[in-house]
Specification:
262 residues; mainly alpha; 11 helices; 73% helix; globular
Length: 262
């Protein structure tokens, strides 16, 4: 493939749906273990820290601390679920099992496969989002129709971090490579994005960094929705997440074309 061919716009067809469906059918066989792994950690953090720290910090930003933490955990869970799927699972299909090679030898393009993987990673993020949201509602918080908008927000967060994961997938020589992304990107982003404490408490320099992080915009949306309010700056928050998602997916597509089609 020529250099210009690598950078062309995505060439998509409805065939991507069959690839998405294939991933969904495989996941169904391991659904219980998958859900447990994606949901257990954030739930434990939410309950343990929510009630533990919540005993000393009754309210944060007008919310009970467990509700404050829960909205952050919703976004965190969507972030980790989609990232894991777009890295470890996608890498297995691309490099180890050679599933992608088999698919693109049929009348399905690599662009369709990549798009299906992207949407599938975001789809999986919905499952963890719903699980955490149900717990928050069961604990007596967020009893407003606005809270249901956190579910499509989880999909949008999944698109954003699923795209980042696919970038890493295109670059990875092996599974160990993904540790860099978890350690150097996801963990600092988690700590700086207002999941555990308000961003306003940090130094101004760190607040500036936090405002550039996609997770921060997702958390701001989720907190307002849980309180039954239209988020302030909602269009800006959504636009930031979409720009990150679409930009990262395009980079992932170019890098994957270079890796597999040359």
């Amino acid at each position: 493939m020529t250099t210009s061919g690598l950078w062309r716009a995505p060439d998509l067809s409805p065939r991507w749906i069959a690839v998405w469906r294939r991933n969904q059918l495989v996941w169904r066989k391991l659904a219980i273990a998958s859900l447990l792994g994606n949901v257990a950690d954030p739930l434990l953090y939410m309950v343990a820290l929510g009630y533990g720290i919540g005993a000393f910090v009754p309210e944060v930003g007008g919310l009970k601390y467990i509700a404050f933490l829960g909205t952050g955990m919703v976004c965190q869970s969507a972030m980790f679920t989609s990232s894991f799927e777009a890295m470890y699972s996608a890498f297995s299909r691309m490099h180890v099992q050679r599933t992608w090679d088999a698919i693109i030898n049929a009348p399905v393009s690599l662009d369709d496969v990549m798009f299906a993987e992207w949407i599938w990673a975001a789809s999986k993020a919905i499952t963890s989002t719903v699980a955490i949201l149900v717990v928050i509602l069961a604990l007596g918080f967020g009893h407003s129709w606005f809270a249901l908008w956190i579910i499509p927000l989880g999909f949008l967060v999944g698109l954003t971090f699923g795209a980042f994961g696919l970038v890493m997938n295109a670059l990875a020589p092996g599974y160990d490579f993904f540790t860099y992304f978890f350690t150097l990107v996801l963990t600092p982003g988690l700590l700086l994005s207002g999941v555990f404490f308000p961003v306003e408490q940090m130094p101004v320099a760190l607040q500036t960094v936090a405002n550039l992080l996609p997770l921060k915009h997702a958390v701001d949306l989720a907190r307002a929705l849980l309180q039954g309010a239209v988020p302030s700056g909602i269009l800006q928050h959504i636009a930031v997440l979409l720009v990150y998602a679409i930009g990262a997916f395009y980079v992932a597509l170019v890098l994957t074309r270079r890796r597999l089609l040359r």
